[in-house]
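Thread title: Can someone regenerate the structure for this chain?

I was given the following input by a collaborator and told the matching structure tokens would be attached. They weren't. Posting the sequence so someone can regenerate them.
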Amino acid sequence: MEKLIVISGPSAAGKSTLAPLFKEGLDREDYLRSWVIELDLLFLMLDPTYTYEDPYVVWSEARKQASILLKSLHPKTENLPIYVLGSTIFSPAAVAQLLEELVEEDILFYHFTLAPSIDALKERFIKRQSEVPDWILSHLQERVPYLHEPWTTVIDTSTLTPAQTRDMIESHVKQGIGNSFTIKDWLTNYASLPT
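Best answer:
Regenerated them for you:
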């Protein structure tokens, strides 16, 4: 069965560093059939200057466009997993937007939440941009209610390297550790489909 692996996490959790690692070691043919989608890049395609008055609307549209993209890609992957990474795929409503075009497809769905400590995030922000943004606490607070959802596997990446994080995710998927659902079952049990 095909697999869709969704990885969510706050800014500076390591998603962009992690993304290219999922293609390491693939042969030439599999490399071109394997997909790693960064939702942040779709956001930038929609709003490259960050000037739209409501970023939540842009994120919503990015998730919808990713869903359409996933529907067109999944028949071409020939059982290679598809990875989607993003900072706004943490609530049932957001996940449902990402999955809505795939409701009839026979795909196994995994959701992982990268959850480094606040100290680790601050350290990464300082390393990346010399300061901690003032919005970081509200950014983290909106994720807290979803950290204990039965459909996500939380990984504390505070002390993990990107390669260790990748290995942990791939091990969970390969060994069936954690939660996996068909997309239809997930949508039925955890989210209502948009009307």
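The chain has a mean pLDDT of 89.
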